[in-house]
């Protein structure tokens, strides 16, 4: 079910983009509508998009790409994003380039990187957003889904009592149906300006122009609810049941995969664990990989169709949200995940 998205002059819209171009593809219309309504807009770009070898090889006619070439490419993509945002009406001083490693955000999340979290929490506290626009948890690009989890953790650190509407967008997805969404209708001039902003990302449209410019449509959709595949036989999912966390891994679990877990407590602390797959049936103690703090006891059941993990938390009701993702440990040439993260939120304590 979709509801119209309306913006007022009292809104403060903070847009998180993992790479230069995501701000235009996902929110080019929202940015224009927000500014037209008199709302404040700020854009945070997490990386410079410098780990982008195939377009760089094509455009620069080189095969070997070293650190200097990557830095130059990142600077070029930064300049493209700055120009695109000017086209959309965003002043330069309302744009922040954070400079974190491209394709490295999942690792920073799992390392509980203090610099990244302090930066993000500081931006949230300073800007005091009413609308936080983030990539969707299910986006297949690991930087996108990791940005969502990082934002959710940072919100808890910044001020868990402040009501912020989270609007999620999907750029890389196989989903054909979305849950509850807000839809923004663009005018013809807004569609044209969004198209011009996307075209400003010249390094990206040179190889993928048709796909990129296809985002300049009459509507932008933003997810406002969790996509939860609990009960589905086809998808990995997690759920709370009688005080225990159940994580279902569907289908064949391949060697070389791992399960990532990020757990958010009511106090705002985040705990992290990773498990090498496939798992053997049995019981083990799950620890936070940074502090060695006991998270809980993990019971593992395995059959040919699925792997079931049942966590009895040591922290009891203090765990609010669990994010989980199955991924390849070594990606090779393939950047994208089979699926993004999935979550289980504990409603009652």
Automatic annotation (TrEMBL):
Source superkingdom: Bacteria
InterPro entries: GlcNAc_PI_deacetylase-related, LmbE-like_dom_sf
A GO term for molecular function: hydrolase activity, acting on carbon-nitrogen (but not peptide) bonds, in linear amides
TM spans (from-to): none
Pfam families in the record: PIG-L
Protein name: PIG-L family deacetylase
């Amino acid at each position: 079910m979709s509801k119209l998205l309306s913006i007022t002059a009292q809104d403060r819209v903070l847009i998180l983009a993992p790479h230069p171009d995501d701000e235009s593809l996902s929110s080019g219309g929202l940015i224009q509508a927000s500014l037209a309504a008199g709302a404040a807009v700020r854009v945070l770009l997490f990386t410079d998009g410098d780990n982008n070898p195939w377009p760089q090889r094509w455009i620069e006619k080189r095969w070997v790409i070293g650190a200097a070439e990557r830095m130059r490419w990142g600077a070029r993509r930064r300049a493209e994003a700055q120009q695109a945002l000017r086209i959309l009406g965003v002043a330069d001083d309302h744009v922040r380039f954070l400079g974190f490693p491209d394709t490295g955000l999942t690792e920073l999340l799992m390392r509980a990187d203090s610099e990244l979290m302090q930066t993000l929490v500081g931006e949230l506290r300073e800007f005091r957003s009413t609308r936080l626009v983030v990539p969707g948890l299910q986006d297949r690009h690991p930087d996108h889904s990791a940005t969502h989890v990082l934002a959710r953790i940072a919100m808890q650190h910044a001020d868990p009592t402040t009501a912020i509407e989270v609007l999620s967008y999907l750029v890389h997805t196989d989903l054909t149906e979305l849950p509850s969404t807000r839809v923004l209708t663009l005018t013809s001039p807004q569609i044209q300006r969004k198209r011009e902003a996307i075209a400003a990302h010249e390094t990206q449209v040179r190889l993928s122009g048709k796909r990129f410019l296809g985002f300049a449509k009459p509507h932008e959709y933003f997810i406002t609810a969790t996509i939860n595949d609990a009960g589905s036989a086809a998808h990995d999912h997690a759920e709370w049941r009688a005080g225990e966390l159940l994580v279902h891994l569907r289908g064949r679990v391949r060697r070389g995969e791992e399960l990532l877990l990020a757990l958010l407590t009511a106090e705002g602390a985040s705990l992290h664990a990773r498990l090498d797959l496939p798992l053997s049936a049995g019981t083990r103690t799950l620890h936070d990989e940074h502090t060695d703090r006991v998270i809980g006891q993990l019971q593992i059941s395995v059959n040919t169709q699925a792997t079931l993990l049942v966590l009895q938390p040591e922290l009891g009701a203090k765990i609010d949200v669990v994010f989980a993702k199955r991924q390849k440990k070594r990606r090779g040439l393939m950047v994208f995940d089979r699926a993004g993260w999935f979550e289980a939120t504990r409603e009652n304590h």
